[in-house]
Amino acid sequence: MPCWVSPTSPGAAYDEAWLPPAKAGMRLGGEHDLIVFDAASPRADFDADAFGALSGTLRAGGLLVLLTPTLDAAASRYMARLCRRLSQADGVVRWPAGAPPQLPELGGAWPRWGRISDDPDCLTSDQAEAVRRLVGLRRRRPLVLTADRGRGKSAALGIACARLLEAGQERIWVTAPRPEAVAALFERLEVLCRLGRREGNRFVDARGGRVAFIAPDELSARIERGEAGGPGSWLLVDEAAALPAAMLGQWLAAFPRIAFATTVHGYEGSGRGFALRFRERLERQTPDWREYHLAVPVRWAEGDPLERLVSDLLLLDAEPPPPMAAATLETVRWQRPALAVDEVALGEIFGLLVQAHYRTTPADLQRLLDEAGLHITTLTDGAHVQAVAVCADEGGFEPELSERVARGERRLPGHLLAQSLAAHAGSREALTARLRRVQRIAVNPQHRRRGLGRRLLEHEREAAREAGIDLLGASFGAEPGLLSFWQSLGFRAVRLGLSRETSTGEYAVMVVAPLSPWGEALAETLTERFQRLLPALLAFELAELDPQVALALLAEGTPGPLSDGERSDIFDVAHGHREPALVRPALQELVQRAAAAGCRDGELAWLAAWAFQGRDTAWLAARSGAKGRRQVMDRLRSVVARFHDSDPTMS
Question: Fewest beta carbons within 10 Å, which of 69, 129, 215, 564?
């Protein structure tokens, strides 16, 4: 089947094959013999994600035609780099306008392709071994399957499901970031279980056993309600790198038999960062976990020249640099024209960003080279990049436009922090002021916790101050350790999202640090508004927020002096029989005072969850070891007594 990707139709004769880049996802899971990708027409804006996705759907022996401008006519740094890499690549047929095709010299042996497995259902021995390990999953011994794209891991999941159903397994849950990611799984089930039937994203075999896809958020909700997981349950997770680590950890605890499959290099996002971060959780929760890597391609030959070329063009195989070769680090502020032609530095920078964020895609490389107002700073040991910070300028708009944005009448792409503070926090000044947002910060994983990230941010703060920036800020998933890092550098929270981010599974928090007198006044206003609003949010919209995060945010407030009545109320709970719920405001004050004094221990977070978030007796009992309401209340009184007695102002 042919596919012609272009922003406009190439003509009526090609309408059936034509596909706008934004709809490239519709063809995932399919196969093509010919793909024409238009990056040269006047309206074409090269979509790196679409190109990366569709190039992997080409069959062995197929043809990929990429239409590009000449190097001199390239409209962006990214496109100029792509054209330059193409001009230097071996094995590429070049067909200049108005001239005959230029055929490459093809020396050496051709890649071998074909079935190399004794398993009749599998195409490679790698796939057969993956299936064997999946079917033989043992209790509390999770399996992590990794592969570059095109290695048949999703099909392996489907083959394993078919064999498990045949062996009598009654139910297997399957999840992934989106249903399309497991299309190959259900296709293999249909082929291998001919007496079964597929019902959308569910398959039922002749005996009534079923394999069902469930969306990640719905799966987590069912686990919390006790409707999923438990003894005998199975879960297969595909494209795990694109899912929040906290969510994966919840599933790991709930399902005794679980497998995580993920793409290591590919358009879906990198599994390299997933492997680095999730390994620690696996070691902690299930130290007997196993790992298997599928290396041999299924759809094309091993050593395929197109796969190598696409990986080079999109930096799909970008890796973190080697560890430090020297003790002294130099701060380098990159000019992007220079970075675009420095393949070594570009690859190392992108490799660091890939391993630090599980949802890095080919389009991020485009933004790195072309997005307006972007600043890239690195720490280098003289040979290799060891840390990188990427920042973007925002704000600086006229008051009239700021007013329209605050009223929701206009949107300003690329101004996440400024626009969000205007639209959601009601601050018109956030759009008229000059802001700089830290988009990404990444440190070589072998050198974390050595102050490199702190050093980069301190440098960025001074550079922004010298440039006349009013506020330096960031937005990230609210996780206790990450929030503590930013707070330690003087950043304060000014906004918290009301729902979990699909990309992180956490509530997004925005933090700022002032850099100018105007910035000081603006930051003070924003933090004061946020602190006034926070208790109400914790009681309702943010009742499910991690109590440790809630405690860290409450600590940024400035509690006032306690009245005599409040001190008496707290004493009566701590050392009497007063019902705690009847003096909740005083206990909230107690929590805020202890948090502001620097306390972050688990008991205070537990008390904060009751006082501010209304966590019920069952939740409190599960986290304290208490049984029943009476023991929970006794525990609550003892915690109140501890903080009452340690506060010298209580007497």
Answer: 564
Cβ of 580: how many Cβ atoms within 10 Å?
A: 20
Q: Which residue has the tokens 């393949």?
A: 343
612 pLDDT band, cuts 50/70/90, is: very high
Q: Which helix (H) or strand (E) holds 292?
A: strand 290-294
Alpha carbon distance 166, 157 (integer Å): 14
Cβ partners under 8 Å of residue 582, min gap 6: none
For the stretch 549-558, pLDDT in tens is 999 999 999 9
In Å, how far are 430, 542, 550, 552, 554 from 537, measured between CA atoms? 22, 5, 10, 15, 12
Of 180 and 524, more confident? 524
Helix (H, G, I), strand (E, B), or coil: what is residue 100? Answer: coil
Within the chain, how many helices (H) and strands (E) appear?
24, 19
Contact predicate 510/424, CB 8 Å: no
If one counts every other C-beta atom within 10 angstroms of the C-beta of residue 313, the result is 21
In degrees to the nearest 10, what's the CA dihedral of 408, 413, 416, 421? -20
In the block, tokens 């041999």 appear at 296
Structure tokens at 6: 């272009």
pLDDT digits (tens, 9 = 90+) for 92-139: 999 998 899 888 876 655 555 555 778 999 999 999 999 999 999 999
Which of the two residues, 320 and 358, has the higher pLDDT score?
320
The answer to whether 46 and 79 are in contact (CB under 8 A) is yes
Element (H, E) at 34: strand 32-38
Kindly report the backbone phi and psi dihedral angles of residue 517, in degrees, each rounded to the nearest multiple of 5, phi listed first: -55, -40
Report in angstroms the alpha-carbon separations of 650 from 565, 571, 574, 583, 642.
11, 8, 12, 16, 12
Which two structure tokens, joined as six digits, stand for 328?
Answer: 């002294």
